[in-house]
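Reminder to self: tokens first, then the designed residues, so the page reads top to bottom the way the pipeline ran.
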């Protein structure tokens, strides 16, 4: 098992005090897993705090070790909430099928 940091690209931008607008990425938590998808799936199944999944565009995980595959900020391994839910379109009673980016 490897320790991963789980991150998410959130819907909506971050507005800084200076007035600059940035993409909104959040650190979600730390998870032990065998591979990145397993880390994200584990976090999704047991989040460390309440989260409205409709606010999340996609998530990804990076090893907490020196790894050439780290540092791509989800460019290669984007895991969308819909992929974690399967075909049901529901997470804890929330219908995500009508929500888009």
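Designed residues (101 positions):
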């Amino acid at each position: 098992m490897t320790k991963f940091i789980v991150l998410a690209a959130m819907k909506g931008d971050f507005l800084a005090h200076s007035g600059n607008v940035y993409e909104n990425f959040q650190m979600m938590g730390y998870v032990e897993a065998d591979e990145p998808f397993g880390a994200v799936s584990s976090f999704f199944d047991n989040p460390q705090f309440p989260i409205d999944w409709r606010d999340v565009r996609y998530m990804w995980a990076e090893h907490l070790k020196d790894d050439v595959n780290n540092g791509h900020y989800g460019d290669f391994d984007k895991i969308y909430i819909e992929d974690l839910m399967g075909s049901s379109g529901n997470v804890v009673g929330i219908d995500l099928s009508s929500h888009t980016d």
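Residues 2-95 form one domain.
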